[in-house]
Fold this sequence. Notes:
By secondary structure, the protein is an all-beta fold. Helix content is 0%, strand content 60%. A hairpin with a 4-residue loop joins strand 22 and strand 23 (241-248). The chain is globular, with a radius of gyration of 18 Å.
Amino acid sequence: MSLARVGFIAIPPGAKPGFDHADVDRQRRRIYVAHTGADRIEVLDCNARSLRALAPELPGVAGVLVDEEQELIFSSDRGAASVFRCSDEQLLGQVEVGPHPNGLAYDLKRRRLYSFNLGEPLGENCTASVVELDPMVVHAELTLPGRPRWALYDRERDVVYANIQQPAQIVVIDCERTVIERALEVPSAGPHGLWLDSGRLFCAADGGDLVVLERDSDDVIASLPLPGVPDVVMHDPELERLYVAIGEPGLICSFDTNRLEQLETVETEQGAHTSCWDPISQCLYVFCPASGGAAIYEERA
């Protein structure tokens, strides 16, 4: 199989180009992406392959996360975390968090949202705000060892993993005790994109490596070279494929997560570092700031 470009969805421009985090609602066939240059979340219709709606303005929006089980959409905005209902995309509440919130992770067991904040000035005094949804209040504030990147919740281990740019680590947060219990050392500078599959953490690092670590033993299983500085990592468990977006020069690298080897490299567009995988149609949406929209790539035999 190989990625083939099959379409493009134009997105109205903002004051400046730029997209950040994106996530998919498989049940409703929607993709949500933070349009940082326009201070809003764009909603794409995966069935019609079109722009569905323009969400209300969210100044400073950066992070987007969908929890399909509890039908919630989360965003990190200018100093706040916002919660929306999936069914009608109505705002349920907002709570003030640390400065410059970015990556998000959701502990659905306790209904707690982790907002990873870049600090003030950027990259200093970085924190993770732990937000209770019932009611919407900050439950705890954790001090981080450096600037956070991508994060995710591991339901099996009941922990949150978060990439730290420097020192090059993945911090592990015990969700029951709300403490950082340990850190996994990453043997490549600047951990950025992150995914968890079959007990393995796939960490795309600025040093130009896709590092695969065993989540329990911290052992490095593999380190695969990348042709540039990566950002977003997406995965399809059925295809056993991992997709790494590289903004400069504009590439998608796909990997076989079973054999741990690179499959192909596809040219996208310079600056296209954000992507989102739709597992239903087996399509990768790559957000292109220069072209002003989402390029659609489909896995074809």
